[in-house]
Amino acid sequence: MSASGIPVIRIRNTLLSAIQGDLSDQVAEAFQQHLLTRIEATGASGVLLDISALEIVDTYVARVLVDTAKMARLMGARTVLVGMRPEVAATLINMGNGLDGLETALNVDDGLDHLGTLRSG
Amino acid sequence: MGVLASYSIEIASEDGVVRVRNQVREVALRAGFDAFAVAAISTAASELTRNAWVHGGGGAARVEEVEEAGRRGVRVDFRDAGPGIQDVERALRGGFSTRRSLGLGLSGTRRLVDEFSIDSTVGVGTHIVIAKWARLGARA
Question: Is residue B115 part of a domain?
Answer without folding.
Answer: yes
